[in-house]
Amino acid sequence: MGVLMSRRQTVERVQKVSLAVSAFKDGLREQPSTRRRAEAGTTRQGTLEQEVQEGEEEALAGPSQPEESSASKAAWERLRDGRGVEPEEFERANRFTPPAFIRPKRQLHDDEPPDISLEQREQIVNDEMCEICEVWTAESLFPCRICHRVYHDGCLRRMGYLQKDSAVEVTETAHTETGWSCYYCDNLNLLLTEEEMYSLMETLRNCKIIPGVCLTLDDFLHYKHQVHKQQFERTMPEAQEEQAALQFNALDPDKKGHIEWQDFLSHESIQLLQKIRPQNALLRLLTPKERERARAAFLALDQDNDGFIGEGECRQARHTWFRKHQKEMLSCNVSISHVGPISEGSPASSRNGKSPEKILPATKQEETRNIDWPRFLRENVAYILAARPNSAALHLKPLA
Fold first, then answer.
1. Mean pLDDT of the chain
2. Total domain count, the chain
3. Burial of 26 from C-beta contacts in 10 A (0-12 / 13-18 / 19+)
4. What is the spatial distance between Cα 217 and Cα 257, in angstroms, rounded to a whole number?
5. Is residue 146 one of the residues assigned to a domain?
6. pLDDT for 303-315, tens place per residue?
7. For residue 231, is it within any domain?
8. Which one of 100, 108, 331, 346 is at 20 to 30 Å from 278 when CA atoms are compared?
9. Could you give the CA distance from residue 270 to residue 268 in angstroms, rounded to a whole number?
């Protein structure tokens, strides 16, 4: 109980500081105009010519901080701090304050290969108390499918992370094979360090991308062309443009004609991680649940138990196990501790008599190329991370 009370006191203190800082900033913005009104009301000694001159000066100077600029600045601050929604955008009654995320820091030995054994299985243990309120209420807790945290749906709703239909989605998927990702794991942007985040923000600024705004196909292709030209100083080839168009379609599974900002941000975040960090550093981001799922996938493909699989089988895993599963594939009679893949012979994959996605047959060259467990992990780690968000969008489309 003492921990619970200290957390509430901390939240209240953060809310008070946030209110004080917001009021101070608002006061600074309004101070010049307020001061001018006060001086005009007290002195009233200026002539008509002076008033006209002051009006002309104000007109030439323009507004000190336009409303659009203020909103844009707030959006960039949310992007920098990894916050999806500001506390001010919620009704304050019965609301918890969303946490201030701390971005990770690169460690000295991150680029060295981690020791992830195929034979040594890892025990998956979830927390016993809600991450938010630190209270244990047994079966009413919803586990994250990526990390060890568990949550009350009521606490998530008071935090502002469950709204409208999302609450139903959590209760329906949290105890299935697909599972549900908590607000830490759902946001791929939180994997970026401060330096990497500033690099991404600079790219978005240079390409005139406004945070929080949906992107159409033309916007997405224009952005990809600009990024390619800035990086390579030449026009993007037609083949890469076609691949970018396929990625847009993967980010727009409902065919709405645009992609949501959060999906675009997740896609760009995983793309940046692939460019900047080596595969060994990405492997260190995997959680025990993700490593166990990868083990189950590899062992299911290694039929002769010789420790090797074919290139075509590795590509098959990339297109099935390490991507989003469709909602109609869910099975509600699955234990919440299950973290393995949905195999082709399972009832989930054979429903309606067809697999979720048509996999291209492997070529002879792919069949003869053997892949061991470490290489299997390195080549698929980006797709494992890209499958974290709850969104149905495919944030990193595998190459055909």
1. 75
2. 1
3. exposed
4. 7
5. no
6. 888 899 998 888 8
7. yes
8. 100
9. 6
